[in-house]
Amino acid sequence: MLGPVILAASRSDKMRRFVSAAPGTKQVVARFIAGETVNDVVPIVQELAARGLEVTLDVVGEDITTVEQSYAARDAYLELIGRLKELGLGARAEMSVKLSMFGQSLENGHELALANVRPVVAAAAEIGTTVTLDAEDHTTLDSMFAIHQELRKDFPQTGCVIQAYLFRTEEDARRLAAEGSRVRIVKGAYKEPASVAIQDKPEIDKAYVRIMKILMEGEGYPMIGSHDPRLISVGQELARRAGRKLDEYEFQMLYGIRSEEQNRLAAEGHRMRVYTAYGTDWYGYFMRRLAEKPANLLFFVRSILTKG
């Protein structure tokens, strides 16, 4: 039951100030956040690539309040793409973006987010890589899917994310698999009401398997975003039954979580991509990582008590 409480705290300015000031926060944040700047994250991308891993990069930041902040988010991604180009890392690293960071929730936000993300997608294509649109809370999804569809007209490799705990997702998966797009499936990490989302964890897992099956049997490129050994094993079996080769789907895990398993899957020949976040506005992302797994919260609390 701690998960919903932590997710609620992720929206609290008071909790943001408390967590940011806590003595052990920096140590724990470093486990999940690869750094604050492009210069911090580039060596990590190089190190992961040297281990045979691929990367998707997320410049963290959400809940912006001004158009100027949305432009800054766009420019941060363009700077990142420029560095990847200089280092020849385009083939190993893609980008993940949250459209809220590009102005989706502002006035005329749909048009603003599309205008901001399009040059990022275009720049990524120029260096041989692509962009995946992250899923956020359910109220944003119709806009996200519409932007995804629009971008794919010129950049068909553009990916998107679907969340297993939402009732709508099986229908979304059928539509996306038929289109042949790149689709990442995750369980879902936002606090959603029972009217739109499954609340029982075992039922979420069952939904995840059903959606994986839809994607594996479809025409698209499934990206299995999970650290759950059972779901990873099921994903492998579904891929085998669907006759997919190892380069026709991939697994994705978060930076700092189950690194040994990431290496194992890559050594077996699977495409293994590490979701790597960096930036100064880390709070919302960090709190969702705590909410996903009680052990992460215990690690954080222990660090605070040790440093206090």
Tell me what the structure shows.
- The chain has 308 residues and is of the alpha/beta class.
- Helices cover 54% and strands 13% of the residues.
- The chain has an 8-stranded parallel beta barrel with strand order 1-2-3-4-5-6-7-8, surrounded by 7 helices.
- α12 (283-292) crosses α13.
- The longest helix is centred in the N-terminal third of the chain and has 21 residues, at 67-87.
| Rg, nearest Å | 18 Å
Number of helices: 13
Instruction: Describe the sheet with the most strands.
Output: 8 strands, parallel, barrel
Helix content: 40-55%
Task: Note the run of SSEs as H and E.
Answer: HHHHEHEHEHEHEHEHEHEHH
Summarize the structure.
By secondary structure, this protein is of the alpha/beta class. The protein contains 13 helices and eight strands. It is 54% helix and 13% strand.
What brief labels describe this structure?
308 residues, alpha/beta, eight-stranded parallel barrel, 54% helix, globular, disordered C terminus
Q: Helices and strands in order, then pairings?
A:
Blueprint: H1 2-9, H2 13-21, H3 25-32, H4 38-50, E1 54-59, H5 67-87, E2 93-97, H6 109-126, E3 131-133, H7 141-154, E4 159-163, H8 169-179, E5 182-186, H9 201-217, E6 221-225, H10 229-241, E7 250-254, H11 259-267, E8 272-278, H12 283-292, H13 294-307
Parallel strand pairs: 1-2, 1-8, 2-3, 3-4, 4-5, 5-6, 6-7, 7-8
Helix pairs in contact: 1-12, 5-6, 6-7, 8-9, 9-10, 12-13
